[in-house]
Design a protein that fits this description.
Shape: globular
Oligomer: single chain
Order of helices and strands: HHEEEHHEHHEHEHEHHEHE
Bound molecules: ligand C2E, magnesium ion
Helix content: 40-55%
Number of helices: 11
Distance between the termini: 57 Å
Amino acid sequence: QADMALFQAKRAGGDNLYFFDPVMQAQLHARARLEADLRQALPRNELLLHYQPQVDADRRLIGVEALVRWQHPERGMVSPGEFIPLAEENRLIVSIGGWVLETACRQLTAWAEDPVTADLTISVNVSPRQFREADFIERVLATLAHTGARPERLKLEVTESLFVHNRDEAHETMRRLKEHGVTFALDDFGTGYSSLSYLKRLPLDQLKIDQSFVRDVLEDEASAAIVASTIALSESLQLAVIAEGVETEEQRAWLVAHGCHAFQGYLFGRPGPVDSLPFQV
Ligand code: C2E
Ligand code: MG
Ligand code: MG
Ligand code: MG
């Protein structure tokens, strides 16, 4: 069959010899279709936000992380792990990220009217590509202004990859947004490039301990050491710290014993629609 494909490619291309791999061709085709569909996702209203609870040591809801979902008409729910990397390769992430920010800010404004929800924060993931857009600061400020959301309630999650190149520029963007009250969390901490001396200078508010370390904290000494030192580091840098991916009571107890008092994970709630949020877990 591969020979046949090669033969046909050769004929179609005249004298030129093409390397033609039907499996690769099929993958490229599927990808191109997904990308074409993703272009239509926003205009067709197929994106939605799920919110995952973040709780304190008393299991009270203190905030949520906004996680984007794509309700594809034929494929069903497509996970962000599948379409965010695709969107990052072209400029689609900029419009998707803009929509996420807008939707989260509208939610903050709705919550501001009820004393029960007024103090909640929303953490929004920001891709490096989106963050580096020339008008990123203006877009965030304009979104806050026209939705009426309080900047102090908006937390932007960035990853270490943002600081590998042009770190002074990233630093400056964060500093300017912080002047307006927006806060920053460093997502997936420990999985990427980390220069501790640089971390000291970053205008951060919170470290998020990556779920891969939390998962193994009771079984693996290296993970336990990484989590314990991240908590200690956050204390000495006067940053807040939150553990991601907390799934068991044992993990929670270990984290509390080591000085971590904010948690996110299936133990407290899976990401879901806004009306499914528990206020006390
Ligand atoms: P993330 O920002 O690190 O988000 C945490 C991921 O861990 C989420 O996956 C969440 O559902 C999952 N999770 C939470 N608690 C647990 C747990 O206890 N156990 C396990 N095994 N997993 C848990 P999700 O929703 O599939 O999102 C995956 C990634 O996609 C996110 O990782 C984030 O990097 C990206 N992403 C999601 N929404 C957005 C967005 O609006 N913009 C951008 N740029 N990226 C997004
Ligand atoms: Mg995140
Ligand atoms: Mg994370
Ligand atoms: Mg992650």
